[in-house]
Amino acid sequence: MSDRDDELGNDGQFDENGDPIEVELTDEERAELGPDHPLADLSPFADGFEGTNIDDDSDFELEDSEYQSDAENVFEELLARVGEQAPQPRLEATRRAVELIGDPQRTYPVIHITGTNGKTSTSRITESILRAYGLRTGLMTSPHLVRVNERIVIDGRPISNRALAENWADIRPFLLMVDAELLAKGEEALTYFEALTVLAFASFAEAPVDVAILEVGMGGEWDSTNVADGQVAVFSPIALDHTHRLGSTISEIARTKAGIIKPAAAIVSALQTADAQIELERAADLTESTMGVEGDAFELVSSDVAVGGQLITVRGIAGTYSDLFMPLFGEFQGHNAALAIAAVESFLGAGTQALVHDVLAEGLATVTSPGRLQVIGAEPTVIVDAAHNPHGAAALAAALKEYFTFEDIAFVIAVLDDKDAAGIVGALAPIANRFYVTTSESERAIAPEELVETVRTFTDETTDFDTFAEAIELARSWAGENERRAVVVTGSITLVGEALALAKAEGWKP
């Protein structure tokens, strides 16, 4: 054994008593991690204990409050890692971490969901249907809007602060062990998303869940969620986004996303462009997987506006389901529901057994999709939508015209610097009366004075504001002059989160 192996605890192994060997770092390695990284100045092995999830609804709020600071500490440790804007194109680091904690992702079946737009809503709809069937579900989505707990949902509820903190304490020593191994090889320590993925897998196993629905963070092939093997691989519409990471063409992006397809998987896909479809079909052939595509294997037959949402009829892979109410707005959500139904059919009955209509109806009727065409205020009406690319903005504009009857709409908008701001504004401009341009809390947000120049290429009815609070206050004041006016907050998921937090703090009533 080399001196370096000895310093690192024999390559992250255990002693004769089965206890983890303590990790030690040189001063240079601690400096490389940075002062905020938990390995830099804390003992690498905190006292851990078995994770838990709170099931007693009567005690949940009290418990959540008692462990608030513990959950905040977890979030701070995650933030000390490399952020999600700079994911590492690798799987080995996550594989090593889950290996050390016993490969929890292999203890439950997985439905794996990727795409460019609609994957979060599709994930939530899939989870709600499976929960209506009596299955205990685990759901991982990203990003969160207000609290990191939202990303790990167990049985329809964000993980409690207590479970988040205790499960983190359980896995933290092993994450730090992997950090040390990576640094010894000259590689980046586990990133925010890699560590969070391991936490989600461990939390699902501890719950335990009957099935996990995993939304890919970015891409697919090298996304850390891909250490799990999905029996069903689901693809929402694929479009241009994250081109600096995934490729500059639809074909390149689709090829990366197709990396989630495992041998003999069941594939269900939304209607795709020809280029994307070719890549998915190639991956299906290579993995000897079955494939059902919207329009052929299943389809949204109809979507009709209803009070509080829509009535849809879906022809699934194994049956047709009529007059299902779903409390989500926008025909695109009807397409997401059709995709989710096909995914559940593939999971429960290999696509050969129709779903029970009443159970499916219950699952759709109770689904939620926070931040997606969500009404968060009335008098005046305020709607938030997390559209952050042109495809999503176009869907938002179409849904506002179809499902609402506003005479005037003002958009409060902020956009991140790696997004197509002109494409987003261009999709919204035809239905906009004015834009209130601002920024979000993200360090990557375009400066308001820069974004407003982009908006002015489409309309002169715009003003820029240094803070979201200023922008939304004046927008609401304008909308309050006429009950047929509305304010829509969009362009950035971070901005939507700020709007939700403000609505809660100020007691807005939807």
Please provide a written account of the structure.
Residues 371-492 form the Mur ligase C-terminal domain. With 510 residues, this protein is of the alpha/beta class. The protein has three domains: 1-230, Mur-like, catalytic domain (UDP-N-acetylmuramoyl-L-alanine:D-glutamate ligase, 3-Layer(aba) Sandwich); 296-369, no CATH class; 374-506, Protein-Tyrosine Phosphatase, Chain A (Alpha-Beta Complex), CATH 3.90.190.20. It has 20 helices and 17 strands. The chain is globular. The termini are far apart. Residues 1-24 and 37-56 have low confidence and may be disordered.
How would you sum up this structure in a few lines?
By secondary structure, the protein is an alpha/beta fold. Helices cover 42% and strands 16% of the residues. The protein starts with a helix and ends with a helix.
> What is the number of beta strands?
17
CATH class of the largest domain: Alpha Beta
Principal-axes geometry comes out as globular
Structural class: alpha/beta
Radius of gyration: 23 Å
Which second-level CATH architecture of the largest domain applies?
3-Layer(aba) Sandwich
Question: What is the third-level CATH name, the topology of the largest domain?
Answer: UDP-N-acetylmuramoyl-L-alanine:D-glutamate ligase
Oligomer: single chain
The CATH H-level superfamily of the largest domain is: Mur-like, catalytic domain
